[in-house]
Amino acid sequence: MEIVNRELARHHLIFVDAKSRVYSSKKHHKGIDAYQDKKRLYDIEINLKENGQLMTIEDFQFLESIYEKY
């Protein structure tokens, strides 16, 4: 379980950095795309914190697109 907890902590740090990038950008206030991005971030956060699930490849790809977009 120690390895899983360490990986959860690493995934959480990656997630927090991406989330701060979205909310510090001025583009996140407008449009349906911004709403969908924030909803997906919320879903990932629920999986990480409450369910204790690691992120999937699709989640990492989404976070990578966040870096490119914002």
Task: Produce the secondary structure layout.
Blueprint: H1 2-24, H2 31-49, H3 57-69
Helix pairs in contact: 1-2, 1-3
Keywords:
70 residues; elongated
What does the model show?
With 70 residues, the protein is mainly α. It has one domain (2-69). The chain is built from 3 helices and no strands. The longest helix has 23 residues, at 2-24.
Short description:
The protein is an all-alpha fold and 70 residues long. It is 79% helix and 0% strand.
**What is the domain tally?**
1
Q: What does the overall shape look like?
A: elongated
Output mean pLDDT: 92
Regions with little confidence, pLDDT below 50 for 5+ residues = none
- Main sheet summary: none
Strand content: under 5%
The chain-level structural class is mainly alpha
Helix content percent band: over 70%
* Amino- and carboxy-terminal Cα gap: 35 Å
Number of helical regions: 3
